[in-house]
Amino acid sequence: MKRVLVVCLGNICRSPIGEGLLHYHALQQGLELHVDSAGTSGWHQGEQADSRSIDVMREHGHDISEQRSRMLVTQDLFTFDHILVMDSQNLNDINCLGTGTAHVDRFVHGNDVPDPYFGGDRGFEQVYAMIDEAAQEWISAWSTM
């Protein structure tokens, strides 16, 4: 079973959406996948996802209300097969932890997923669309391996 970690800054906006959508699309494709998420900061450790992330996911038929924020730890670089980051700062933060056995890549190939935290609800819908498309692409690619 492939193990995937989705990473953003606080693990309350983007990475919970990514975790939920990877899990959903893997189930749809019959792919066994363990998905988790984490943040490069510990600011929201143990907290539920941002209510706007929960709302946008619920509007699209997904429930992430049970997810809780956790901080990325060095061991994650060895525990997971793939670590998917939301932006270049997350990538830099992970590289500062050192190297592990996980393949580290951007969630959306070649692009940063903007942090919608200080934006309005529309930002969460845009982030959802970006992450959903990329999640489908990842699951498709992993299903053929």
Provide a descriptive summary of the structure in words.
With 145 residues, the protein is of the alpha/beta class. It has one domain: Rossmann fold (3-Layer(aba) Sandwich), CATH 3.40.50.2300. Helices cover 43% and strands 15% of the residues. The chain has 5 helices and 4 strands; from the N terminus they run βαβααβαβα. The chain has a 4-stranded parallel sheet with strand order 2-1-3-4. α1 packs parallel to α5 and α2 packs across α5. The radius of gyration is 14 Å and the shape is globular.
The number of E-state strands comes to: 4
Average pLDDT: 96
- Total domains: 1
Here the CATH topology equals Rossmann fold
Portion in strands: 15-25%
How many whole angstroms does the radius of gyration measure?
14 Å
Gap between N and C termini, in Å?
Answer: 12 Å
Low-confidence stretches: none
Overall structural class, as computed from helix and strand content, comes to alpha/beta
CATH 2nd-level architecture: 3-Layer(aba) Sandwich
Q: What is the C-level CATH assignment?
A: Alpha Beta
Number of helices: 5
Spatial strand arrangement across the major sheet: 2-1-3-4
SSE topology string: EHEHHEHEH
Main β-sheet: number of strands, strand sense, barrel status? 4 strands, parallel
Q: Name the CATH superfamily assignment.
A: Response regulator
Shape descriptor reads globular
Q: Residue share in helices? A: 40-55%
Short description:
The protein has 145 residues and is an alpha/beta fold.
